[in-house]
Each structure stands twice: as structure tokens, then as C-alpha cells.
Amino acid sequence: MYYTIRHITRFRYSAPINESMMEVRIQPRSEGNQRCLDFHLYTSPRTHISSYRGEFGNRVHYFDIPNSHSHLTITAEAQVDVIAPPPLPKELSEQAWDELDALTANGEYWDSLMPSHFAHPSELLYELADELDVLRRADPLTILRELNSAIYKTFDYSPRTTRVDSPIDEALQLRQGVCQDYAHIMITLARHLQIPCRYISGY
């Protein structure tokens, strides 16, 4: 299926500013079941736009508007071909844990395995892990599916019970939270099992 996408970001300033320096990560990737056939990025005021490939493989565009301006509009236009992905298997092979360990042995996924600011283990997290029987059994895909279902059943989705900067212990103690709390808890449990996992924020 082909998609034509037009995304507009507008900045309006209360007073003119002297300069804008920005990086934009908005170009769709070509990988898996998706191909980016065409992409253009425009700014108003107009300026020269350069790009480089970031550490995660994303195309990063950057620009500088050195003149005084009171507004900035960034327009991205893309054409993307998306093929429906094949369904996930019901389970993985008995060797899946060994294959996963071999994949992560060279340290390439260290940043998706180490604790981070919002995905940091705690006593409450370990208590939840015991409660949900979070152990290396079956295969990684089966465990992740079980974790996803267990977190959904264990926690109540409740807006405004936590903040954007809340540690996971607040949601763990309340057994309530929002999508980012669910994600941080899931990430921490997955890393506890040495399954690489990271948070992606975007839309």
C-alpha cells in the first residue's frame, strides 16, 4: 500500500529570535516491510538543509537560520510503500535463548540492556518480577507476550496518577499509571531477562 505523507511543524515566537539551529528526525526509514520512495524537507524561512545518518540508522536533517525571524515552518513530504508484515510465530525454537545471547555477546546492544534513568530496577520491580514469575523459560517471544499481558492485567490505566518524570516505583506502588509507566516497567523486566529493549518516543 502506498502512502503520501505531509507533516507540518510550526513555531511561532512571541518576539523575533536571532537564530535557529535544529536537527529533524522525520524521514521514514526503508527497512523490513517499508520503503521510503521519496522524501523532501522544506523550511520557511528558507535555508540550506544537510543530513547525516544517526547512530540508530535514522536520517537526521539539520539546518541553521542565522537571520532574525518570528516564525519557523518545517514541512516534510514523503511517499512510502508499506507491505503488510508476516504474522509473528506462535513461539520460537528451543535454541532461541542461545541465539539471543550470541547476538548480544559482542556488546552491540549494551545500551538496550543496561539500566537507564527511567528503566531502573528496584526492590518493587523485583517483587513484581517474582509475582509474575519472570524467569528465562519457554522462549523470548513467549515470555514477552506473557509479560505484556500480565502488565495489562496488573496495572490500571489512570491518567494524572504519575508525571512525565516519575520513577517506575510510583506506578509499581500504586499499581496505576499511563503508557510510559507501562513501557518503562516492560523495558526493565525485559532487560532483567537480558532481552535488549529500549524506549521509542514519537508518532
Count of individual beta strands: 8
Structural Rg:
21 Å
Rough outline: globular
Structure class: alpha+beta
Q: Determine the fraction of residues in helical runs and give it as a percent range.
A: 25-40%
H/I helix tally? 5
Instruction: Tell me, rounded to a whole number, the average pLDDT.
Output: 94
Q: CATH class of the largest domain, anyone?
A: Alpha Beta
Number of domains: 2
Largest β-sheet summary = 3 strands, antiparallel
Instruction: Report the CATH architecture of the largest domain.
Output: Roll
- CATH topology group of the largest domain: C8orf32 fold
Order of strands across the biggest sheet?
1-6-3
Unreliable segments of 5+ consecutive residues: none
Proportion of residues in extended strands: 25-35%
Report how far apart the termini are.
19 Å
What is the H/E order? EEEEEEHHHEHEH
